[in-house]
Amino acid sequence: MAHYADAEGIDAMDHYHALFALSMKHRFGPTPERQVDLNRRLHEIAVGLYGPDSNAAIDALGLYGEALGTYQPSEQALAVLHEALTKASALLGADHFTTEGVRRALARTYRSLNRPAEALIHA
Hints:
This protein has six helices and no strands. By secondary structure, the chain is mainly alpha-helical. The protein is globular, with a radius of gyration of 14 Å. The relative contact order is 0.11. Helix 1 (12-27) packs antiparallel against helix 2 and helix 3 runs parallel beside helix 5.
């Protein structure tokens, strides 16, 4: 399935589903850091298929931000996570599991960046 990561010329929906499955394989496997690039690409494909404010695109953006915050904590990770939180809150509501997952990822990323006061806001 790894050949789907950067495949060209395949059906976009098949590409999306293959990347999602590959991302989950890495998330729960021995190489979880590989999710960063996979989830970035997953988000790009979701935006192309469903639009930037779709549930699929928001889920993929949250997955990308979570992986980025875990394996490459940075201001970029925070920006991606804040965008995902804003979109998830607007579309899905504050209590939706996607919104909650993004909020927890923000708290972890702020903690990784040694910014505990900001982490507490999202914890």
